Inverse folding.
């Protein structure tokens, strides 16, 4: 714990020192030039240079004609690189004259005004991430200010490793981010994030505001990214940055699954009703969703899916209008494909016990037997990880797998 604190402070101090240096040098450069500049390798625990790591929107115009894929293949494969290079998102002024629109709360009006803007440019990309034999891609929704959560995840369940066993390969981790939602945070945090990404090379960032209603944008941007850069990855785990994950159990669970299956597993809600109480975070006005219940969906805190299904989901989601709740939206995309998400006891993304004071919330033997458990802050995550991987004697093995 204190060791971790010290490491964190050290890295923050280093980051700040670097920030000053970087600002002096980079004053005259645009953000993109800044991102593509390479730093001296002597600074900190930089890994080997990653030549393709920070290049955004490469154009292949210099390729000789023989390198180019035949047109028929290209038509069926979609773009080979992220093909959105400009932000062209204008407000839908058609809505402003409608009385039902004017009576909505401001954040719903904002959502509807920009609902038609679906794809944005990339600010940080890692096209190389799925190079080699990747078995499981772990992607984590995060926001620019939650550096400590990413740090804790890198030290625990997000650590990259090679899984042994037949047909296995690497486990790789990426964080999914938009831009800072507060204007005053933007410039400052953006440079720190670029530095963090240089150290770890694990950030995907798109040029849209990281707000609650824009989480659906994060979902579809990731699916499009996956289709372009990781078309062959067998399995994907997607989750929040405040959960506990047990990678060993994930791998054990996947051992007898095939990537070709329509595998979509998590904490599944059946017949959930849209919430109509205005003071609830998940409140949805009747004009936005008229049906009495949602299609089955898995809680966004953490779920597993097969790579092939994820690619088909990308195309299914493209046929739907965006919905402000990201996990419900993914349930709608699954419905388009006629695929049912599967519920599993080991995914506890909606809470463990109704009783918040329940001893289960602190019980390492319980965490050891689970795949995903929701809501742990960085210090709690590090502590629980230590307990679960220490000398733990559990009276009986909880059988969930
Ligand atoms: C932006 O969108 C508008 C309307 O949708 C279109 O007329 C214009 O050509 C677009 N501009 C660019 C640069 O794509
Ligand atoms: C606004 O209305 C016009 C005319 O009905 C339509 O063509 C256009 O697509 C609408 N704009 C948006 C952003 O939906
Ligand atoms: C989502 O992001 C876009 C682009 O930054 C922004 O224009 C829009 O207002 C955001 N929507 C919400 C609901 O925050
Ligand atoms: C775990 O147990 C072993 C042997 O019983 C002991 O040597 C070791 O120090 C223990 N580790 C911790 C972290 O308690």
């Amino acid at each position: 714990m204190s060791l971790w604190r010290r490491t964190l402070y050290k890295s923050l101090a280093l980051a700040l020192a670097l920030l000053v240096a970087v600002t002096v040098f980079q004053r005259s450069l645009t953000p993109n030039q800044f991102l593509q500049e390479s730093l001296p390798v002597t600074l900190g625990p930089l890994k080997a240079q990653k030549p393709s790591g920070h290049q955004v929107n490469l154009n292949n115009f210099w390729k000789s004609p023989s390198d180019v894929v035949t047109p028929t293949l290209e038509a069926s494969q979609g773009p080979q690189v992220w093909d959105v290079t400009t932000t062209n998102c204008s407000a839908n002024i058609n809505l402003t004259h409608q009385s039902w629109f004017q009576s909505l709360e401001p954040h719903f009006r904002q959502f509807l005004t920009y609902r038609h803007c679906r794809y944005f440019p990339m600010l940080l990309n890692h096209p190389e991430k799925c190079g080699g034999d990747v078995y499981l891609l772990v992607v984590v929704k995060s926001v620019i200010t939650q550096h400590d959560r990413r740090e804790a995840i890198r030290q625990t369940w997000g650590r990259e490793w090679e899984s042994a066993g037949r047909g296995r390969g690497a486990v790789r981790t990426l964080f999914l981010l938009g831009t800072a939602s507060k204007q005053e945070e933007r410039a400052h945090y953006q440079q720190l994030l670029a530095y963090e990404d240089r150290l770890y090379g694990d950030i995907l960032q798109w040029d849209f505001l990281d707000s609650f209603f824009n989480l659906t944008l994060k979902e579809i941007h990731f699916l499009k990214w996956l289709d372009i850069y990781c078309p062959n990855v067998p399995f994907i785990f997607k989750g929040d940055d405040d959960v506990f994950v047990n990678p060993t159990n994930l791998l054990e669970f996947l051992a007898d699954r095939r990537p070709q299956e329509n595998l979509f597993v998590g904490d599944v809600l059946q017949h959930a009703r849209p919430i109509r109480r205005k003071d609830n975070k998940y409140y949805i006005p009747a004009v936005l969703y008229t049906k009495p219940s949602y299609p089955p969906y898995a809680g966004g805190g953490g779920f597993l899916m097969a790579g092939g299904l994820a690619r088909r989901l990308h195309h299914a989601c493209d046929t739907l209008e965006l919905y402000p709740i990201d996990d419900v939206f993914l349930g709608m995309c699954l419905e388009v494909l006629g695929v049912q998400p599967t519920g599993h006891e080991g995914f506890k993304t909606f809470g463990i016990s109704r009783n918040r004071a329940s001893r289960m919330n602190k019980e390492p033997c319980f965490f050891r037997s689970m795949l995903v458990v929701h809501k742990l802050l960085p210090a709690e995550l590090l502590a629980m990880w230590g307990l679960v991987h220490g000398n733990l004697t559990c009276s009986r093995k909880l059988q969930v797998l």
In short: The first strand starts at residue 122 and ends at 124. Residues 86, 88 surround 2-acetamido-2-deoxy-beta-D-glucopyranose (ligand 1) (CB under 6 Å). The CA atoms of residues 367 and 388 lie 7 Å apart.
